[in-house]
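User: I'm curious whether this sequence folds into something compact or stays loose and floppy. Could you predict its structure so I can see for myself?
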Amino acid sequence: ELKIPFKAVVFVYYILAVFSNMVEWLPRSYTMCAAWTMVIFLWNVVNKQDIDPALMLMNTLLLNIVFDLIHIFSCYSTSYDMLVVNGSTTSGEFKFAVGMTVINLLLKPLYLIVAYQQFTKRGGDLSQVAQGKVGGIVGSFTTPGGHGYQNMEDQSAMLDPKPAAAAA
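Assistant: Here's the prediction. I'll summarize afterward.
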């Protein structure tokens, strides 16, 4: 088990995300994804008892890894040409921002491990998530009993089965 304080992980993520966006070489979708992840991190800090924030953070970090790879590989060469070659930023600033983005990407599996530790510390179990018994992407489409859709109408509580027009 890693003995990394969760708030330290949040702080490192925040610093690297800010430095990644120091030069606008990534699209706004990267910034929005980083902001959303920061909100989930903060939800985890505030809500220390519930497993849902930790589970949401794990799902978000998994998606972030894929999104970051797509952003980096699709934007690096065009951003370099647009920003450095055209002279709107220096090569050093661009390389620093790219480096912070790559370091943040490389640390995301570590963030994921720390989020998983938070999840298990709060009593979460991934086998229950996979079965749909607890929150998460799978569990959000089922009821607490795991039976899927349940009709909200209580048939025994219906007042009068006669149409309203017949009463008039």
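Summary: Confidence is low (pLDDT under 50) at residues 138-144. The chain is about 65% helix and 0% strand.
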